[in-house]
Amino acid sequence: MRVRMRRILAGIGVSAALASGMAFAPGIVPGAEQLPSAHAVEGGRDALWQPWTAKVTAEGSLCTGSVIGPHWVLTAAHCVGEEEAAHGAVSAGARAERTAAIDRVIHAPGGADAALIHTATSLGVRPVSLPVPGPIPHQPGQFSGWGHGRYPLQTGSATVVGEYRDHHRGEARMLVTHSTRGAQEPGDSGGPFHIGPVLYGVLSSTGARDPQGHVDANYTAVDQLIPWIYRTIGENSFH
To answer: What is the DSSP code (8-state) at residue 218?
Structure first.
């Protein structure tokens, strides 16, 4: 099953942005025709064992990310704008109780919807594990996100149902998941799809709900980013 997206949507939908008084995230055009945004998780459950799922507040938008090191968070590129010096903060922990300022943003090469955030201080939480290159395990996984700032962190379940190349994102490889419990909400963009403690995808966008309330979502595949991630961390380790 392939979900084609005409736009990569930011983690805050138009109505959610207006209700919260926050500015539109990069790529949102008020009044333009658009699919639902990659959206805390509706109909999910508390995610008390995922300290690596981070709340990202940058450039006036609310998104989600994954802590992959003491000072490093992986999120969607559309969440942090195009400049390296993004303004904002990252919070981690089940109730986002640990906060650090963002001091640098580095975008993935080739236009993939992924970016690394470097924080000024350590987040002090256990990071998620990165995958090795290869096929995605054929088993259910979990997704999580901070959505509308709901506490504690919420998580849902999904399975990988397909892959494709995004021609609008430099042929980046994308994973398509189908939710089996819960659904993404505005603010979940950049959030993880993981199987156990291993991160496989970064949420980029979602499709519409089916009659049963399930959602197909598009994730940037993490394994293709591994060389860039390790190289970037090695070249930019300030602490």
So the answer is: E
